[in-house]
Amino acid sequence: MSVVIPAHNPGVLLTEAVESAITQVPAPMEVLVVDDGSTDPLRVPDHPLVRVIRQPKAGPSAARNRGVLEARGELIAFLDADDVWYAGKLAAQLPLMRAGVGLCSCDFDLIYGNEHRPGWGGGARDYRALLAGNGIGASSVIVRRSILVDVGGFDERLSHAEDWAAWLEIARRSSLAHCPEVLIGYRRHEDNSSDDYRSMFRGAARVLWRHRRSGGLRHLRRAGQIYGSLAFDAFRASRKPSHLAWATVLWPDYVARQVVGRIREKSARG
Fold first, then answer.
1. Tens digits of per-residue pLDDT, 174-231?
2. How distant is the alpha carbon of residue 131 from its chain centre?
3. How far is 174 from 101, CA to CA, in rounded Å?
4. Stretch (H or E) spanning 23
């Protein structure tokens, strides 16, 4: 099994990510760190399992695709450079990659600095369930290389939701498995692309449009609720009208409830 870690100026976090992979039991066949045009030196542990592949900056999808292309294993596990695997991840998930299973995921928690908070997971039972929303963390995934290559890998035209797009195509062609254990730590910080609610919503909308013949557009409202709540949180923190405008467009009912609640709260205080 091969591990693919896309990395662009990951700083000190890369060392912890790589070490969490090479210390797994059973150990992977190789750990491929794809340096996606970093301008800072990579801090990569010197280990016989680790190989660094360098390319001009092209984005995480291109970096993952390059790693898949170079990988020797039929099974590919993905790990973002700022995330971490917990002990026992591979031991718990690999037995679930039975014949007919194209993808296996697991639950994860959230890391804010040194604090761990409950995360989520739940994976998805099948294509229809996954179409309703992406509950699969990229760093939790093990896939069959042959199926991922068959679906075209990660769409490099998508800057957001590209992982969801790939999982959906895999789910159309194979079964999904999920391990209900917290086996990875998903690190949250100011550089997370998932905090860009505008781009995330646009990416989700593009993915759902591709699956419109399967009823994908029915789930557009739910995507609006997810990213509308993030927009409103951004408005609370900054008081910028642009965030409120986005929240109102994406989830008007939620914004209305918040405004009415605030009015009632002020009235109660007299």
1. 999 999 999 999 987 655 544 589 999 999 999 999 999 999 999 999 999 999 998 9
2. 15
3. 6
4. none
Strands 75-78 and 2-7: parallel
Instruction: Say if CB 211 and CB 120 are below 8 A apart.
Output: no
The β-bridge partners of 186 are: 110
CA angle 121, 18, 26 (to 5 degrees): 75
Is there a cis peptide before residue 26, judged by omega within 30 degrees of 0? Answer: yes
Of 110, 89, 69, whose CA–CA distance to 20 is shortest?
Answer: 89
pTM here is: 0.91
For 49-161, where are the alpha helices, taking DSSP H only?
Answer: 60-70, 89-93, 127-131, 145-150
Structure tokens at 19: 């070490």
Rounded Cα gap, residues 145 and 160, in angstroms: 22
**Cβ pair 71, 143 in contact under 8 A:** no
Scored b (16 or more CB within 10 A) or e, 220-229 reads eeebbebbbb
Other Cβ atoms within 10 Å of 115 Cβ, number = 8
Terminal Cα-to-Cα distance of the chain (whole angstroms): 65
Tell me how far apart the alpha carbons of residues 235 and 37 are, in angstroms, rounded to a whole number.
Answer: 34
2 SS3 class: strand
Low-confidence ranges of the chain (pLDDT < 50): 193-194
Q: What is the DSSP letter of 188?
A: -
pLDDT of amino acid 242: 93
Alpha carbon distance 237, 139 (integer Å): 29
